[in-house]
Every structure is written in C-alpha cells, then in structure tokens.
Write a structure and sequence with these properties.
By secondary structure, this protein is an alpha/beta fold. It has 10 helices and 18 strands. A hairpin with a 4-residue loop joins strand 13 and strand 14. Bound molecules: flavin-adenine dinucleotide (FAD).
Length: 416
C-alpha cells in the first residue's frame, strides 16, 4: 500500500479500516543469499539498500526482539554532519543527504526536521577549536556558521549567558542538522525492505555461527539453522557477543547511555543545542517534551537501564546551561547499550572470515549514520569491497594505527 494524500483521504472516508500492516512478519526460510543479524536501523537500512541498489532480495533480517526494540528506538533522534576528520566528514554528509531524501525514498513520514544544531562554546580556546571544525566542514561542502554570543542569544534567549563558571561566548551552528523520529526510521526501512521482498524475522535470535574452511555457511537461531552465502552483523550494543560466536574479539566495549524526557511544555527550544562545558544536549519533541541526554554511564553493561549518579550529573549540567529546567518535571528515562569503539569511530568492513561482514562501533552517534551506514554496508556486502565512503572504517585500523580519533582525546571509550 502506497502512502499518499489520496490513501489518507480514502481511508478517512472508510473509517480507517482498510490500512494494511506495514511489513510482512516473515518466518525464516532455509536459505538466503544474505542474512543481516540485527533488526535495528542499520540492519534494516542495509536490507533496503541491498534490495534497492544491488538487486539482492533473497535477504533476511534476523532480529532477536521486535523491530525498534534496540537503540534505534531509544536514541535522542539527533542528526548532523558536523565532523572534523577526513574519514568522517564525507560519510556523515552523505548520511545527511540521504536523510534529506529519505521520506520520498521509502514513502514513509519519518518526521525529518532540519531545525539546526548548535554547539555552544564557553572559552576562547574552544572558539578556536570550533572555528577549525567549521572551516573543515565548509571545505568539504558542509554547511556551518560560527555564531557570536548575540547571535546565539537571538536563537536561544533561555540560556544562562553570564554563568560565572561557563559563560556562553558563542556557538557553531549546522543549519541542516536536526532531528528525525527514531522509531519511524525503523518502521519505514522495515516496510520499504519488506516491499522489495526482504524477510523481516522478529523474535529470531542468532545463537551461533557455522563456519567451514574459513567460510561462513549460515547461522544457528532460535528458529533453527539458516544457510546463507553471506552474513552481515549489525547488532550494535551486542556486536561483541555476536562476533564472539564467529571467534572474533572486537575492539569494542559495551556501555550504557541514558536518555530523558520532560513533561510537555509550550514551544521553547526550536533547535538542538549542546552544552560545551560538559556533555549535555537538548531538543524539544513535537509533543512538547524536552528530550535530553549526555555522556555514557562509564561502566560496561548489557542492561538497557542506567544508574543514578549520571542522572544527577546530567541534571546539574542542564541547569547550569538553562536554569529554568530546574522547574520542570521529568517523566521518563531509559538506557541503551552502546557499542563503543576504541577511537569513537565506526567499523564497516569485511572480516577475516569469508562471507562475514561487520557493521559496529557506532558509540552514541550511530542514529544519524543510519542511512549511510546501511548504504555503505550494502555496497560492501554486495560488491565484497568497501565503498570509498567507508574505506577508512576498517577493522584492522586498531592494529595498523590508522585511528579516526575525532575528539583527539585518546583511544578509550570514556574519552569520546
Ligand atoms: C539514549 C541514547 C541516545 C542516543 N542518541 C543519539 C543521537 O541523538 N544521535 C545519534 O546519531 N545517535 C544516538 N544514539 C546512538 C544510536 O541510537 C545507535 O548508535 C544506533 O541506533 C545503533 O544502530 P542500530 O539502530 O542498528 O542499533 P539497534 O537498534 O540496537 O539494533 C541492533 C539490533 O540487534 C539485535 N540483536 C542483538 N543481538 C542479536 C542476536 N544475537 N540475534 C538477532 N538480533 C540481535 C538487537 O535486539 C537490536 O534490535 C543514542 C543511543 C542511545 C541509547
């Protein structure tokens, strides 16, 4: 069923009784050309682009829970491409371009909202660093504007500009950055892939990997053994666990990241805005709730919930940036499992096992990467070689020393 103004009107007159389910709830077949492990944003996008760009439709996405139960439905929905380093900038810019055409591509309202992302700076040294990043973006054809204090005040008058400890001195704005409704991305990609013939198999956990003579031949699942010519791992926070089934030890740690939503208030914050003196960011959802988050909790875990000290720390940062937040009530919080790589950048690559491919290491920034990640991973799987956009995201860069350390702070998950 194609979604359009005409289908909407016709359903309205029929009492909305004729809508069909968005995607087929498939049961796995015995064999596929490609199996994607993980039905998050990246796995579903990969399946969509495998079918659309490479004509591969004998494909299954195996998801241990339900579609949207992982980080794709838990993130704070921010998209941007304000990166500094050569390996990252073109990749994230391609992702933003795909976001800009996504709703037409998949015929699904993902509520792509390019409301702008502002990173505040609070010192002269930080202004220099942000100017450098903004210039690198412009050299790569990415939009960026360095705002002074008064320009920021016009956009965000609610900030504490004269905070004695962290006065706001300006900000780096990416006007094309913004937010996208996260679960709609999962549903939209699932629907688009399913329409092209991909099997989306929920409640089908991969429990083992069968390898013969260095080549993958299929996966063991809770619904039996499934044969496959090629297998792609896109299991985000569970990447290390899944890779261990194939005997691979990844340069990845799993950490918890929390998110929070406040009670709904009238329109207040019409951009995404981040605190430069700590790690705190906030935007406002269409329902009026403030959606915010910050840093990882800082200990390894596979639990999808966080701890109290980080909650307190985040609230302090929020109030330091926007004092009026102290009068808001917060309604909900949750956690997701982050696949933190050692340099903060992702991996989209082949593995030493023939026919096995890896998509991992997204840390807390993988939502914005969803379209480009799926697009590049599909290319890598279909053509058996990386696309130039993901050529730097190699698995062996941690051995060869070709790290992509965007923050320049060192190779440990708690530093980036
Ligand atoms: C609180 C929070 C805030 C965030 N905010 C942002 C943000 O604002 N912007 C941004 O860009 N990024 C953000 N992120 C990061 C982003 O959400 C992730 O990097 C990204 O969603 C990971 O890719 P995914 O969607 O494929 O992951 P997931 O949705 O987690 O998909 C992986 C799937 O694999 C499945 N799986 C695991 N093991 C198996 C198995 N053995 N068999 C079958 N299936 C399996 C899981 O059930 C899961 O559904 C945030 C994350 C969190 C938790």
């Amino acid at each position: 069923m194609k979604y359009s103004i005409f289908s909407l009107l016709s359903q309205a007159f029929q009492g909305n009784k004729g809508w069909s389910t968005a995607w087929r709830d498939a049961q796995p077949k015995d064999e596929y050309d490609v199996i994607i492990v993980g039905g998050g944003g990246h796995g579903l996008a990969t399946a969509h682009y495998l079918a659309k760009e490479h004509g591969l439709t004998n494909v299954a996405v195996l998801e241990k829970g339900y579609i949207g139960s992982g980080n794709v439905g838990r993130n704070t929905t921010i998209i941007r491409s304000n990166y500094l380093l050569p390996g990252n900038t073109p990749f994230y810019e391609w992702s933003l371009k795909l976001w800009e055409g996504l709703e037409q591509d998949i015929n699904f309202n993902a509520m792509v909202s390019q409301r702008g992302v502002i990173n505040l700076f609070h010192s002269d040294a930080q202004r220099d660093a942000f100017a450098r990043r903004g210039n690198a973006m412009r050299l790569n054809g990415v939009d960026s504007e360095l705002l002074d204090r008064e320009q920021v005040r016009q956009i965000a008058p609610y900030l504490d500009f004269d905070n004695a400890r962290f006065p706001v001195k300006g900000g780096l704005l990416q006007p094309r950055g913004g937010t996208v409704r996260h679960d709609a991305v999962a549903w939209g990609y699932a629907r688009a892939a399913s329409q092209r013939g991909v099997d989306i198999c929920q409640n089908c956990e991969v429990t083992g990997v069968r390898i013969e003579n260095g080549k993958i031949i299929g996966v063991e699942t809770t619904k039996g053994f499934i044969r496959a010519k090629k297998v792609g791992f896109a299991a985000a926070g569970n990447s290390s666990r899944v890779a261990a089934m194939a005997g691979l030890r990844l340069p990845i740690e799993s950490h918890v990241l929390q998110a929070f939503v406040s009670e709904g208030v009238k329109p207040l914050i019409d951009t995404v805005i981040t605190f430069g003196a700590g790690h705190f960011y906030v935007s406002q959802s269409d329902k009026g709730g403030l959606v915010f988050g910050g840093d990882i909790d800082g200990y390894n875990s596979y639990a999808q919930r966080g701890s109290m000290p980080l909650v307190e720390h985040l609230m302090e940062e929020g109030v330091a940036m926007i004092p009026m937040l102290s009068r808001l009530r917060f309604l909900r919080s949750w956690g997701g499992i982050m696949d933190m790589s050692m340099d903060g950048s992702p991996i989209i690559d082949k593995t030493p096992i023939e026919g096995l491919y890896l998509n991992a290491g997204w840390c807390y920034g993988g939502f914005k990467a969803t379209p480009a990640s799926g697009w590049c991973f599909a290319h890598t799987i279909a053509r058996d070689e990386p696309h130039k956009l993901n050529a730097a995201f190699r698995l062996d860069r941690f051995a060869t020393g070709h790290l992509i350390d965007e923050k320049g702070q060192g190779a440990t998950p708690n530093l980036h």
